[in-house]
Amino acid sequence: MDDKIKFEMEFPIHASPQLLYQYISTPSGLSEWFAENVNSRGELFKFIWDGTEEQAKLLSKKSGERVKFRWSTDEDTSYYFEIKIQVDEITKDVSVIITDFTEEDEVDEAKMLWENQISDLKKVLGSV
């Protein structure tokens, strides 16, 4: 299998970190913008899009700050995706930092997917 490329993206979001955390860390919050439906049993999350199911394991989370998942297809690897909330200490501006891995020839496509996902998140938050 090809090595995947790590990439990071930053998106400014006008929302409180506490509210934002609910949307990135809970099945109900994630179903509002990330997938059509999200279920969880413990640290296993099931994401559903167009009848297709993908499972991810919650690797870590820090309340009000970040969540990190690993897709079941990447189980024996060090690949993950992380959604992190960053607050600028001076301006108090809030950003979401996405860290993800993808195949080298799919980086642009993966970034576009995240841009669309975060755009949906901003609409749900009224932060457009």
Automatic annotation (TrEMBL):
Organism of derivation: Mangrovimonas yunxiaonensis
Q: Gene3D superfamilies recorded for this chain?
A: 3.30.530.20
Describe the location of the START-like domain by residue ranges.
1-126
**SUPFAM superfamilies from the entry?**
Bet v1-like
> What is the protein name stated in its UniProt record?
START-like domain-containing protein
- InterPro entries given in the database record: START-like_dom_sf (IPR023393), START_2 (IPR045736)
